[in-house]
Design brief:
Blueprint: E1 2-5, E2 8-11, H1 30-60, H2 78-86, H3 92-116, H4 118-123, H5 137-158, H6 161-166, H7 175-193, H8 199-209, H9 212-216, H10 220-240, H11 243-256
Helix pairs in contact: 1-3, 2-3, 2-5, 2-10, 3-8, 5-7, 5-10
Amino acid sequence: MTKEMEGEVVKDYQDPPPSPLFDTEELTKWSFYRALIAEFVATLLFLYITVLTVIGYKSQSATDDCGGVGILGGHINPAVTFGLLLGRKLSLVRAILYMVAQCLGAICGVGLVKAFQSAYYVRFGGGANELAVGYSKGTGLGAEIIGTFVLVYTVFSATDPKRSARDSHVPVLAPLPIGFAVFMVHLATIPVTGTGINPARSFGAAVIYNNKKAWDDHWMFWVGPFIGAAIAAIYHQYILRAGFAKALGSFRSSSNV
């Protein structure tokens, strides 16, 4: 959104500066480690609640193939973190350590479920994501790519400072559209893959359940979400927000100096 002021076009919003790819100074700040702890604890609780919900639901309906629920905002998801990295929203160091914290939290969360509900855990598949019978691996991969694209694109759009300035009169919190997007993705992909769209969620369940079928299909729950996140980041940042054109223009102007 822009305004005319004395013949000049002035933005009424401000884009945050792009994060540097390598920012070792972060490692000296307590706020950085506090964020890592938050990612670990949040993912632990998320997986604990998610897998308990899946097992409880399957115990009520043994014929159901529900595979889990998605995130309702924030990171708690390596695919979201990867997309934000490509969009220059955070540094490579922060992104890698976020993903490590998320995966460790997921393993611990699912481990707690197995410890407290061991009988139901094994009987109802441990909440692990697997490709459903009757679907090809290509179909499963495509479902994960499209589902994660929808999620990560919604994250970018819901947190876009330009959108916030344009719709400042509308009191809509970012988690609402993100949660709705996750809900719609689940309706479409639960019958196919149980809905991964979160590599940490799939990884934690696969590690603790440790079933051959879950590991055979596991690659698609990393490759699919990362491809979907990359497409969403490139589409939003470099096409819709014209990041590529701005970067090219900046390069040309600096070359002419």
